Amino acid sequence: MALNTVLHQRSGGLCELCAGSDGLSAYPVECAGDSVALCQICTDQLADGSELQVSHWHCLNQSVWSSEPVVQVLSCRVLRRLSAEPWAQQLLETVYLDDEVRALVTADATGEQEEPTRDSNGAVLQAGDTVTLIKDLDVKGTGFTAKRGTAVRNISLSENPLHIEGRVNGTRIVIISKFVKRAG
After folding, report:
1. Could you say which of 25, 38, 65, 69 is the most buried, measured as most Cβ atoms within 10 Å of its Cβ?
2. Among 2-16, 97-111, 126-140, 166-180, which is the least confidently predicted range?
3. How many angstroms separate the CA atoms of 149 and 132, rounded?
4. Are 149 and 120 in contact (CB under 8 A)?
5. Which residue has the higher pLDDT, 114 or 13?
6. Taking the C-alpha atoms of 21, 26, 27 and 30 in order, what is their torsion angle to the nearest 10 degrees?
7. Do 159 and 114 form a contact (C-beta atoms < 8 A)?
8. What gap in Å lies between CA 155 and CA 140, rounded to an integer?
9. Which residue range or ranges hold the PhnA protein N-terminal proteobacterial domain (predicted)?
10. CB atoms inside a 10 Å sphere around CB 114
């Protein structure tokens, strides 16, 4: 899809995520009802839904603070896909979003019901629940092991229904939901 005049003026002829200029095109963000100007590299990585090249996406440190809500939405959605990366988790925790933008970030673009996040026993988990680890988990990049029986309070759900997020030993980590059981 070609860049229209308004999108070209808004973006200044640069990718609104990484500031690249090669092969700019309009990338639709359906949930926001708008488009973002993206370079060929960003478009290719987002279009096929495959694993993202983490090194490219450090550009989100800038784009997530854009004054354009649609750019914020797309930036946060990409960050959520990268939530296993500590820098992406930290950025998601610190970014301020209006309630409307936050709702668009978490909205299911297809309009279909998302698969619920379930614990090891099949119980549906909700944001804010307390869970208990059912096995020792080595936490990559931190040098500690989250011990079996550790309570993780006030969990957050991620875009991936197989993952939850929570704090263990003061560090926010991503936990595979099959390794927890809902407390209480």
Report:
1. 38
2. 97-111
3. 6
4. no
5. 13
6. 150
7. no
8. 19
9. 6-47
10. 12
Q: Mind spelling out the 3-state secondary structure of 103-171? A: HHHHCCCCCCCCCCCECCCCCECCCCCCEEECCCEEECCCCEEECCCCEECCCEECCCCCEEEEEECCE
Question: What type of residue is 142?
Answer: T
CA dist., res. 7 & res. 10, Å (int): 5
Return the ∠ at Cα 157 (arms to 51 and 182), rounded to 5°.
125
Local structure of 180: helix, strand or coil: strand
Q: Which residue has the higher pLDDT, 148 or 89?
A: 148
- If we measure between CA atoms, which residue out of 39, 151, 145 comes closest to residue 47? 39
Question: CA of 133: how far to CAs of 8, 49, 85, 114, in Å?
Answer: 49, 30, 21, 24
Q: What share of the chain is helix, strand, coil (3-state, %, to 5)?
A: 35, 20, 45
Q: Which two tokens stand for residue 118?
A: 């379930």
Digit-coded pLDDT (tens) for 10-65: 889 899 999 998 889 889 888 777 889 999 988 888 876 667 888 999 999 999 99
Domains of the chain: 5-106 (no CATH), 131-182 (2.30.30.40)
Q: Is 172 helix (H, G, I), strand (E, B) or coil?
A: strand
